[in-house]
Structure formats: C-alpha cells, structure tokens
C-alpha cells in the first residue's frame, strides 16, 4: 500500500510533490489553502517554534480561514519529537485526530491537526516509535462507533486498498449497495462520523475522504477488512 501521505493526491504533479517530500526524509505538514491548492511546509530542526494562525506574520499563515485565530497554535521540537500546543490562544480550539487538544501533545506520523476549517496532515518519514495518536484501542473501546457505523466505514474505505494511484472513497450510494443499508441512513451516519472527527465544516466530498483516511490511519479499518467484499 502506498504511503498515507500520497493518498488523496488530485493530480500526478501533487503526487510527485508529496513523494519528493517523503524522499527528503524530513517531517513536514501537508494541507490545502483557501483555493484548494496543495501546500507542503517542511519542519526544520533549526526552528525553535513554528506558529500557526490567521495572521500573515505566523510561520504558517491561514488568512483564508475565518475560524482560525490570529495566533492559534504552535509547533515545537522537544527531545527530537514535534509537539503541538494550544494554550488557550484559539477561540475554536485545536483538534488532533478528532480529539480536542488540551495543553501540549506529541505528534506522530499520520496525525491530522484541525485548526479552524483547515486540516493539516503531519508526516514524519522514517520515524520510529508509536503511530498516530488515535490508535485502534481508543476507537474500539468507545461505544460511539456502532456495528453499523463500522460496516459503513469499511465500505467507504474500500477503494483505499485497491490498486492504482490516488484515492476517492466510495460514494454514499456505493456504500448503501454494498452494506444493504438505506442510502439516507448512510449519509446521516457519515455526517455524524464527520462531526465526531471534528470535520463537519469541510465540504462533503472532502469530508468523506478525510473520514476514510482517518479511519485507516487510526486502525479502525485495516487492509484485511477494506480489501475484500463483506
């Protein structure tokens, strides 16, 4: 399976740009700006701190995002690992893998950081140690994910494990056809899952893709489940 950092590339050029960032072997942030353009920001070990916010003076400026605070969050390198902190600077909070950030948190390869309406993927090529912050045990232990929701997620994620470049999740109708669940129920459940992951403000097509990617990265859906028909 290809790297999660290259999944969701919209064009061959984007795929190549992401692969080049991976080949450099240094941590980076991957996100889209207000016009939908791909942005890749390398994280240098020489930087004491990397600020994120709506102000142009921020190291990573998000002027297009009305829900991002002027100074929203800060990344810093601690003992060789990148961490993120939101010390109450933001009005709407900072979210990591759908969980609201409280204080400082270590970032792991594949983590999704939500600031305002912007989703930033943290990538650390070649990193060793724990995986994404939200792991399978956390998800399987929570009753919020019903058996029906897990069936829907598996069907949604199935294209992720198919051969070929790029990734588009199954449509609501395709999920309904595979699971036998009414398409209106599928839509409602996926909207609920998006809210649980903190992605409700994204446009629906992008929201579906992020829900699917997060489900795979967190371990809720694995290749053995997503790669075969249920």
From TrEMBL:
Keywords from the named record: Phosphoprotein
One Pfam family hit: FHA
UniProt keyword Phosphoprotein present: yes
Key word Oxidoreductase present: no
Every FHA domain range: 50-101
Biased composition regions of type Basic and acidic residues, renumbered to the chain: 11-22
Annotated segments matching region Disordered: 1-22
Full protein name: FHA domain-containing protein
Annotated organism of origin: Solirubrobacter ginsenosidimutans
Taxonomic lineage of the native organism: Bacteria, Bacillati, Actinomycetota, Thermoleophilia, Solirubrobacterales
């Amino acid at each position: 399976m290809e790297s999660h950092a290259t999944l969701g590339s919209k064009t061959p050029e984007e795929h190549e740009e992401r692969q080049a960032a991976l080949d450099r072997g240094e941590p980076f942030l991957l996100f889209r700006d207000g016009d939908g353009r791909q942005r890749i920001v390398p994280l240098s070990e020489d930087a004491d701190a990397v600020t994120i916010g709506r102000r142009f003076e921020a190291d990573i400026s998000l002027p297009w995002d009305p829900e991002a605070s002027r100074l929203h969050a800060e990344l810093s390198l601690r003992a060789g690992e990148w961490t993120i902190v939101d010390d109450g600077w933001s009005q709407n909070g900072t979210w990591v893998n759908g969980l609201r950030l409280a204080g400082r948190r270590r970032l792991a390869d594949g983590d999704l950081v939500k600031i305002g309406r912007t989703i930033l993927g943290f990538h650390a090529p070649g990193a060793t140690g724990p995986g994404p912050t939200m792991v399978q045990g956390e998800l399987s232990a929570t009753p919020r994910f019903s058996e029906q929701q897990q069936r829907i997620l598996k069907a949604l994620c199935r294209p992720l494990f198919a051969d070929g470049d790029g990734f588009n999740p199954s449509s609501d109708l395709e999920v309904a056809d595979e699971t036998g669940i009414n398409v209106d129920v599928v839509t409602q459940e996926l909207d609920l899952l998006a809210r649980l992951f903190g992605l409700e403000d994204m446009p629906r097509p992008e929201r579906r893709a992020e829900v699917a990617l997060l489900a795979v990265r967190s371990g809720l859906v694995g290749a053995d489940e997503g790669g075969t028909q249920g």
